[in-house]
Amino acid sequence: MRLSTxxxxxxxWNVGGKEVWQRAEELGFHTAYTYDHLSWRVPFRExxxxxxxxxxxxxxxxxxxxxxxxxxxxxxxxxxVTLAKELISLDDISGGRVTLGIGAGSAGGFDATAxxxxxxxxxxxxxxxxxxxxxxxxxxxxxxxxxxxxxxxFWSAGDVRNIPGCVQRPRLPFAVAAxxxxxxxxxxxxxxxxxTTGDPKLFENGTPAxxxxxxxxxxxxxxxxxxxxxxxxxxxxxxxxxxxxxxxPLDSLDAFVDFAGLxxxxxxxxxxxxxxxxxxxxxxxxxxxxxxxxxxxxxxG
Length: 301
Known about the structure:
two-stranded antiparallel sheet, 8 helices
C-alpha cells in the first residue's frame, strides 16, 4: 500500500504554496498530485486557482524524492501535442518523478465549456468518451516516439518531434481514471495504474459498505478488461482518490486504518488523501492528517 496526497493549486507559490509541497515530502507521502482544471467547483470557482503543470514544475524544483502528478488531466481543454511537450519537460525537470493521472473529464468543473462559444452545451458523456478513446493512444505515442504523424477525428499531429523523450522509459506512467467499459479498456491497454473515486451515486446517501461493494465491482470489471486483452490485472496499480465516498477516513488514525485495510483487501494499493482545506468539503484536523501520514501504513501491518 502507498499513501499519497492531492494538493489543490489554490495557494500563491511564495505565500504558503511551496511549503505545502515540501511538507508533503517531509511527511513521506509517495506522490503529491494536483487537480488539472482551469477552475473547479464552488467555493473554489470564486477563489485563486493556478495551473497544474507550472505548479508541478515548481514543486519538482522544491523537492527531491516526492513523486508528482495530476488527478486528473483530461481532453476538456488539453491538446495531446502540446500536453506531451510539457510533460516531457516536466519529467526532465523532476528527474523522472511524474505520473500522469488522466481521465475523460466531466460536464462539471467549468472546464467543459471554457473553450466553447458562449451558450454552447458541454460534450455528452459519449462525446467525451469518444475523445478520450482517441486522446490516450495518441498521447501514448507522442510520449514514446521521436516523430509522430496522425490524422484523427478530433486530434491531429503533423510530424511532431519529441526529442529526447521522457526520462522514464518508454514514457512516464499513466494512471487512467475510469469506471465505464470504454475507459476500463483504455486503462487495461495503456495504463500503469487505474484510478477510481468510488461510485458517485453513493457519495451523499450511500453507506461505506455499499461503497466498498461498488469498488469491488469496479475492480472486477477492470480485471475482465485486462483478461480480454491478455494482460495480468496485477500489473496495474489501483488507486483510490478519497473524498467522494461515504467514508470518513480522516476522522482519526483508527478510522483511516480500518478504511485502508478494507480497501487493500479489494486490491487497492494506493490511497490518496486531500490535503486539508478549512471551510470546504476537504476540511480535516491537520494533526490527525499528519498522524495518518506518519503512522497510518505502519498500523496496517
